[in-house]
């Protein structure tokens, strides 16, 4: 089969990305891989949807560094093809990266992903589900029991009052964002720099204020779910503890966090089970949960990362299991000749 990975920009791809691991796992199983970016779709007057797909010239399976070098260099070639020649469109872009400088690009994957799904291409995660999850407000649709105490506002008075109610302090971050950008821990509403922090974060739109979880000092646990359930093989879970750098409140790998092994307890599995129904309803095939204690800080549905780090920690490359799941879905789609809609097929 042919899998197209939709990303923000090919020039920004890196060897340590989960998308790279997925691409190499697909190639190792004999599949064709191509990359698409927001400007690569063409809807022609006859209503045919075309894509300008970038591929790496055929050769032996490459190491991650060599693969990315080839993808970004002279070994890459671009060809225009009908969307129907793609079996799986894997939406792996981060809309927040394009929101400021290229707002037209932020939601191109969702817009054209819908058109691809309508034309019979398995599109993951389901674009209608992703449309509901364009910012962290999506998180508020999950059970209150697994969410930290949360306020969403642009009013500094509301935020000050909220902080005063939190005995352990609060976390401030933008409603739209990723990678730990503009995330701050506030101990008290009387902090001298609160106004400056408020201005920095509110410049990106609405703010989220969350009650601080003391267990977060040890980092959070990134746990992958596939088809609504923890991704695992023979008891090895696709999970890691993201340990923050000294003096950091953020555990994101982009913010100098480091990966460590994580114990997946019955309590963590219970948290994952609580979010499963909605993830399945929304067609969320591959998701990353960020868990502290018995709470979820974030649900990453666009481009959850960490599978290469997990493979290094456990010696088990669960990217292969993701590709196996795609193979099964494509076979189901073929056998049922389009009778199962994209959202349902996404999590079967």
From TrEMBL:
Record PROSITE patterns: ATP_GRASP
Record-listed E.C. numbers: 6.3.2.3
Catalytic activity line of the entry: gamma-L-glutamyl-L-cysteine + glycine + ATP = glutathione + ADP + phosphate + H(+)
Keyword Protein biosynthesis part of the UniProt annotation: no
Alphabetical UniProt keywords: ATP-binding, Glutathione biosynthesis, Ligase, Magnesium, Manganese, Metal-binding, Nucleotide-binding
GO molecular function: ATP binding; glutathione synthase activity; metal ion binding
Pathway info: Sulfur metabolism; glutathione biosynthesis; glutathione from L-cysteine and L-glutamate: step 2/2
Cofactor: Mn(2+); Mg(2+)
Pfam families found in the cross-reference section: GSH-S_ATP, GSH-S_N
InterPro entries: ATP-grasp, ATP_grasp_subdomain_1, Glut_synth_pro, GSHS_ATP-bd, GSHS_N, PreATP-grasp_dom_sf
Keyword Plastid: no
Taxonomic superkingdom: Bacteria
Limits of the ATP-grasp domain: 136-327
A cellular-component GO term for this protein: cytoplasm
Family: Belongs to the prokaryotic GSH synthase family.
Protein name per Swiss-Prot or TrEMBL: Glutathione synthetase
């Amino acid at each position: 089969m042919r899998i197209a990975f939709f990303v923000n920009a090919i020039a920004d791809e890196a060897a340590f990305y989960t998308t790279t691991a997925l691409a190499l796992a697909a190639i190792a199983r004999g599949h064709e891989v191509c990359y698409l970016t927001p400007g690569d779709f063409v809807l022609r007057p006859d209503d045919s949807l075309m894509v300008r797909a970038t591929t790496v010239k055929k050769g032996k399976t490459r190491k991650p560094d060599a693969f990315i070098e080839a993808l970004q260099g002279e070994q890459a070639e671009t060809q225009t093809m009908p969307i129907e020649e793609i079996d799986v469109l894997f939406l792996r872009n981060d809309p927040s990266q394009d929101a400021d400088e290229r707002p037209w690009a932020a939601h191109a994957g969702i817009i054209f992903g819908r058109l691809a799904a309508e034309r019979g291409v398995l599109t993951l995660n389901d674009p209608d589900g992703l449309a509901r999850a364009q910012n962290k407000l999506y998180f508020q649709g999950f059970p209150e029991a697994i969410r930290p105490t949360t306020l969403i506002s642009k009013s500094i008075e509301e935020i000050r009052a909220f902080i005063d109610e939190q005995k352990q302090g609060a976390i401030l971050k933008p409603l739209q964002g990723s990678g730990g950008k503009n995330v701050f821990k506030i101990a008290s509403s009387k902090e001298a720099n609160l106004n400056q922090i408020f201005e920095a974060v509110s410049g990106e739109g609405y703010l989220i204020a969350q009650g601080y979880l003391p267990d977060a000092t040890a980092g959070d646990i990134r746990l992958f779910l596939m088809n609504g359930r923890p991704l695992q093989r023979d008891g090895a879970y696709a999970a890691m503890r993201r340990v923050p750098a000294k003096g950091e409140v953020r555990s994101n790998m982009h913010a100098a966090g480091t990966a460590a092994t994580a114990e997946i307890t019955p309590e963590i599995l219970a948290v994952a089970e609580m979010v499963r129904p909605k993830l399945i309803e929304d067609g969320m095939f591959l998701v990353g949960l960020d868990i502290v204690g018995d709470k979820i800080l974030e649900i990453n549905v666009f481009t959850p990362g960490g599978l290469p780090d997990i493979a290094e920690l456990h010696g088990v490359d669960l990217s292969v299991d993701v590709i196996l799941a795609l193979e099964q879905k494509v076979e189901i789609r073929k056998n049922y000749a389009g009778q199962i809609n994209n959202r349902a097929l996404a999590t079967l």
